[in-house]
Specification:
about 270 residues, mainly alpha, flat
């Protein structure tokens, strides 16, 4: 990072990522404690965090396994919770898709809620950044989030029952989601998807094995896509109407000028 602008982007990302430590630390420790209480060894708990690195999906799968749900249901529920990662990938590709393969793999692995939300907001605030600057920012914002996740998970797993599972640390999950999602709800499609998914999640909470989340996630995406389609169709219609109006106005103006010219040339 010899380029001063790249260094500046890295340090800006690092600063933006530091506040997330207040969420990542307790959240990861709680997972470590609950995982060991559920019967996983320290090695299994760490493997879970390193391989999955998705807090909400990890908690979902762990809860279902504790409830003796079939492994297929646990995997499907975790996948449904993580469907948003596909949208994150599609959204960030215009910014980082031109990176070399190993850097794209790096971004794909560390693309979590916090790194995505922070990066996209920064890219919108600084649209003139180069590809190297954008990648540097991503690395910077990732460092206070992902490595501490592993360390805090290990601390929680080693502590075991020393930290009670009902200590109230689970408040971090909804707060983290609200803090990250609320600023991103800038378009009608985003707001419609979030609202419909919330309503569906509450309406289908009675489904066994947390299947209501799958219904809510799929329903929210459908509603959001339909609202976006209608908005784009309306924009296209308005653009076409404006173009027709301009053509008609130009034609009328041309006729007016022509008539005026004819009048001036008459003896």
């Amino acid at each position: 990072m010899r380029d001063p602008k790249v260094k500046e982007s890295f340090w800006r990302g690092l600063r933006d990522g530091l506040p997330f430590l207040l969420i990542v630390g307790p959240f990861a420790m709680l997972f470590g404690v609950l995982a060991t209480e559920a019967g996983l060894s320290v090695l299994e708990t760490m493997s879970f965090s390193v391989v999955v690195i998705a807090g909400a999906a990890q908690f979902t799968a762990l809860q279902l396994l504790q409830d003796n749900a079939p492994a297929v249901v646990a995997l499907a529920s975790a996948l449904a919770v993580n469907l948003r990662m596909a949208m994150y990938s599609a959204s960030i590709t215009p910014h980082l898709g031109a990176l070399p393969f190993w850097k794209r793999a790096f971004v794909a692995y560390f693309l979590v809620d916090q790194t995505y939300a922070s990066s996209v907001l920064d890219y919108e605030k600084h649209p003139d950044q180069s590809l190297a600057e954008k990648f540097a920012y991503f690395v910077g914002v990732m460092l206070p989030i992902c490595p501490p996740w592993y360390l805090a998970t290990l601390a929680g797993a080693l502590a075991g029952e020393a930290i009670p599972s009902d200590g109230g640390l689970d408040f971090a999950l909804p707060i983290a989601f609200i803090a990250m999602i609320a600023p991103a709800l800038r378009t009608p499609a985003h707001r419609a998807a979030a609202l419909s998914a919330s309503i569906l999640a509450v309406g289908f909470v009675w489904l066994p094995f947390n299947l209501g989340l799958m219904v809510a996630g799929i329903g929210g995406m459908i509603v959001g896509a339909e609202v976006e389609r209608r908005i784009e169709a309306r924009k296209a219609q308005d653009t076409a109407q404006a173009a027709r109006t301009d053509v008609a106005g130009g034609t009328t103006e041309g006729h007016t000028r022509q008539d005026s010219t004819h009048s001036e040339t008459r003896p």
